[in-house]
């Protein structure tokens, strides 16, 4: 699997799990033209210790940004902070990875409260919406600056793109297959909404040649995925970055998995 990404790359939810591994793989496998902005809620906290160590390991390549995807003021502050650091190149790739799940697995109907639904939606849907909206001018700047790249395909993650990390359990067509194992009402519905956000942004931003795609990372061994998941974070992250490296016009507004296969809505 090859990773062919460059420029300014922003990853949310990067202090653990898939987000942390995405930052690590990007730091390892991208060249000098890439700079990673790793976002998390508490950059100075104990849960970001590994991320801080990673930034020390790759001096000058990783910048840690404070960002709480459930807080509009935090999103606005982070957007303003990174806009000052991107320079004339703008933002090439936004990876909306941060997400929460409430209540704990299996997320039964009887255990799910309205508060759970709203908090999950706020982080998993409203957060990516606001971040995409606020960073749109920077994505547009990158798309315009790199207008000579990838002749024939005007869209790519090397130029200007948003990747929303979704899930196969967001698929309505596959719900009968996936529901028995994990009901996850709040998480499922939030990711289905994120898919629609992906489609809407793809339509809105196509005039500026900004690619917007949703990707399912697979069932991964993380705090959320659990120990029985078949994939490790390294396999998932490398697979997704390889897929991102190959995306083009035809993939905008689509839901794909970590191996590049199309998932039905």
Percent of residues in β-strands? 5-15%
Annotated CATH homologous superfamily: NAD(P)-binding Rossmann-like Domain
Question: Which quaternary structure do these chains form?
Answer: single chain
Span between N and C termini? 27 Å
Number of H- or I-type helical stretches = 7
CATH topology: Rossmann fold
CATH-defined architecture: 3-Layer(aba) Sandwich
State the low-pLDDT regions, or none. Answer: none
Largest sheet: 7 strands, parallel
Number of domains: 1
Radius of gyration: 17 Å
Q: Please trace the helix and strand order, writing H or E for each element.
A: EHEHEHEHEHHEHE
Any idea of the CATH class? Answer: Alpha Beta
Overall pLDDT level: 94
Number of strands: 7
Helix- and strand-based class?
alpha/beta
Shape: globular
Strand order of the largest sheet: 3-2-1-4-5-6-7
């Amino acid at each position: 699997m090859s990773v062919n990404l460059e420029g300014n790359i922003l990853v949310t939810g990067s202090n653990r799990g898939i987000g942390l591994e995405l930052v690590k793989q990007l730091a390892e496998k991208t060249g000098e033209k890439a700079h990673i902005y790793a976002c998390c809620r508490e950059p100075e906290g104990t849960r970001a210790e590994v991320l801080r160590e990673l930034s020390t390991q790759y001096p000058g390549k990783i910048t840690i940004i404070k960002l709480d995807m459930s807080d509009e003021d935090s999103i606005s502050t982070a957007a303003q902070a990174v806009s000052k650091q991107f320079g004339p190149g703008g933002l090439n790739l936004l990876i909306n990875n941060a997400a929460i799940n409430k209540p704990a697995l299996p997320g039964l109907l009887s255990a799910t409260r309205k508060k759970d639904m709203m908090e999950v939606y706020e982080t998993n849907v409203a957060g990516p919406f606001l971040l995409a909206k606020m960073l749109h001018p920077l994505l547009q700047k990158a798309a315009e600056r790199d207008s000579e790249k990838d002749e024939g395909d005007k869209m790519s993650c090397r130029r200007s793109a948003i990747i929303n990390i979704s899930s196969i359990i967001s698929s309505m067509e596959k719900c009968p297959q996936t529901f028995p194992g994990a009901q996850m009402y709040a998480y499922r519905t939030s990711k289905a909404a994120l898919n629609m956000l992906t489609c809407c942004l793809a339509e809105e931003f196509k005039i500026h040649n900004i690619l917007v795609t949703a990707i399912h990372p697979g069932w991964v061994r993380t705090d959320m995925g659990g120990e029985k998941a078949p994939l490790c974070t390294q396999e998932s992250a490398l697979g997704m970055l390889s897929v991102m490296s190959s995306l083009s016009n035809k993939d905008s507004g689509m839901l794909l998995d970590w191996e590049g296969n199309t998932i039905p809505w």
